[in-house]
Design brief:
mainly alpha; three-stranded parallel beta sheet; 3 strands; globular
């Protein structure tokens, strides 16, 4: 009801379980799929991996903090962001529009809380290939990646570094290009997996 009330949004299907969600995405080719983490037959994590892997749509996970302790795995599976189940209607609508435009949905306060909750599941990963790519980042690009992983927006990073927001956008684009990442969500996942930032740590000046 919320989405169909918007003149620029069309709901092309509703799925009762993960298997049906995968099938509908393949047949209707939506721009965005809103995926519940807890799904019958095929859970949201597995369904997301299959939908993203097939290129049928971008996925936004819909979650609660108290039950969905494997949300980080859904981001690793390729989700473009996530919403809380108690999100305001206008936030839901804006989330769909944001991801449909090709952007990742990373609300700073939600990002920090979810990643902290997932701390026990994160294990720093290292490989010669990732080490090589990370070594290609300049000091400033690495700093931007660290702040990005803390959930800061471009505007917040710009204030922190005392630079223009356009400059931050350029740095973010270069980070994604050098690391061969799709979007900011993948950058956050990499930063935690590679140990560039650690759950429980606090970037100086965070509020």
């Amino acid at each position: 009801m919320i989405l169909t009330a918007q003149p620029d949004l069309d709901v092309v299907g509703e799925a009762r379980d993960g298997e049906e969600a995968v099938a509908l995405a393949a047949s209707t080719h939506p721009d965005v799929v809103l995926m519940d983490v807890q799904m019958p037959r095929l859970d949201g994590l597995a369904a997301t991996r299959r939908i993203v892997g097939s290129g049928d749509a971008r996925v936004v996970m819909v979650t609660t903090f108290d039950r969905d302790d494997y949300l980080f795995e859904s981001l690793r599976a390729g989700a473009s962001g996530f919403l809380l189940k108690n999100a305001a209607p206008e936030d839901l609508v804006e989330a769909v529009r944001t991801v449909a435009r090709g952007n990742a949905l990373l609300a700073p306060e939600v990002t920090r809380r979810v990643l902290e909750a997932a701390a026990g599941r994160l294990r720093p990963a290292s490989s010669p290939e990732w080490d090589r790519r990370l070594a290609e980042l300049t000091d400033r690009e690495r700093e931007v990646l660290q702040l990005l992983a803390r959930g800061l927006s471009n505007a917040e990073i710009a204030r922190r570094l005392v630079v223009g927001e356009a400059t931050v956008k350029t740095h973010v684009s270069r980070v994604l290009l050098k690391l061969d990442l799709r979007d900011r969500v993948q950058a956050v996942v990499l930063a935690y997996e590679a140990g560039i930032v650690t759950p429980g740590g606090d970037a100086a000046g965070d509020t």
